[in-house]
Amino acid sequence: MITELQFVALTDAVRSLAQLRYCLYNIYVEGEYLYLEAKSCDNEQQKCIFIFDGEGNLL
User: Which domain of life is it from (predicted)?
Assistant: First the structure.
């Protein structure tokens, strides 16, 4: 289960990714870390991962 701070970070990330033309395609939690996987809408070869700790900080 994600924390409230991670949820706030998730919503901010989704808004930012949309502006950068990236699509979120996978979200999962392992331990206290929230992982977001995104790929470019223009080039499917470009992928990135964002990791947030339990306090919502991007690592």
Answer: Bacteria
Is there a contact between 58 and 6 (Cβ–Cβ < 8 Å)? no
Strand partners, 33: 30
Q: Residue 44 has what pLDDT?
A: 82
Residues of the domain holding 38? 4-52
Dump the DSSP string for 7-56.
HHHHHHHHHHHHHTTEEEEEEEEETTEEEEEEEESS-TT-EEEEEE-TTS
Distance CA 44, CA 52 (A): 23
Task: Report d(CA 45, CA 34) in Å as an integer.
Answer: 23
Determine the average pLDDT of the residues in 8-26: 92
Q: What is the pTM of this model?
A: 0.86
Number of domains observed in the structure of the chain: 1
